[in-house]
Amino acid sequence: MTADFSRTILRHAALATVFALMLAHPHPVSAQSPDAVQQQFADAWIAAIRSQDEAKVKALFHPATLACINDANRDYFEFSFKDELRTGAKLGTTYTVKSIKPLSGPPPLGVLPADGFTYPVEPTHQMQIDAKTSDGHPMYLIRLLAQANGRWYTVDPCPNAKGLAFFAQQRAEGERQMAEGAARAAAMPDTLRTEIKKLLAQGRWIDAIDRYRKATGAELGTAAIVVDAMAAKK
Length: 234
Fold this sequence. Notes:
Largest sheet: 5 strands, mixed
Low-confidence stretches: 1-31
Oligomer: single chain
Helix content: 40-55%
């Protein structure tokens, strides 16, 4: 079972932490059906992340979020846009807008430090989409939304200097773990490597992780890093 939480540390933390979060259940949301305009946004967002077209993804970010992009934080946002495409690449063919609920109180930042990130405009709603990965595992997509000029957009927080330092630290740790995963993959027996590659070619990412764990006894986080390193090398 996987869950994609509202763009927080999922795209910035070390991959072991990321995968642990992905396996957790999302926060429950009220059973409020989306209106027609909200449903249109959800459909457009799913289509955009599946398209592997970064421009289509950026067009669905709130104008206030895009306005805070500058030379200092551009890498942070480009990483976020590309991570949306990575999420889209894992999606299967079906999804349902489970609910859209109004937010009460300050919008959540997840595990991002509150002194490092602020929302340029306050999101008003939380959207949950229930989907499946291409290998049939449940996936829960959570996004925070706000309107501008009668249209819905997804809202991301903007980092300050502390936020960028946090991002750089977590990204460096993620890169270190990816290098370690690549080294483990290179040392993998040929028969196991062939099995893992076949599963990845079929879009069965979680099955590939399970196969590696069973064959090696590796912990979940380690297995996820190894398989992600192999997938990135394809």
